[in-house]
């Protein structure tokens, strides 16, 4: 049996479920002159969303509530028990560690609001959407909107197995010091934020 922090399971989930969206093809403009230098545009336009099923919409709704600080055990249940969360700051390879991230938002942010989303791609096993999230840190009191591309890989039961949040056009390499720091954050933040052990 691997040790809890050996990350063998996370590596397996990564190999089997990690989404690799093509940001340029999913978010770039057909008119190249309207593209940024990176060729991507993560600003959401809700009216351009592709259709998704009510079950998938419920998943997106739960995820956006978590981004907005719900810190809800019910919302956390959209994740499989064995799941990965991957963003510029954190790499978490169990649902409990993922909860450690979400339960931290109300502690460090006075507000966190999902301003808009746009579903850009959806299949039975993957949802990809643009998101604009406005964060207001407690210490600074200054609001900052962040546009990102969120990819959710789903299992056969409709649970999220891999949640990737990309803030720029580059996918994650899972190598070097950056990955080490992300993993340490994912491992240790739950000790501070203390999500329910039942997760």
TrEMBL record:
Region of interest (Disordered), ranges: 1-54
Protein name per its UniProtKB record: Uncharacterized protein
Organism of derivation: Saccharata proteae CBS 121410
Stretches with biased composition (Polar residues): 23-39
Matching SUPFAM superfamilies: NTF2-like (SSF54427)
Biased composition (Basic and acidic residues): 9-20
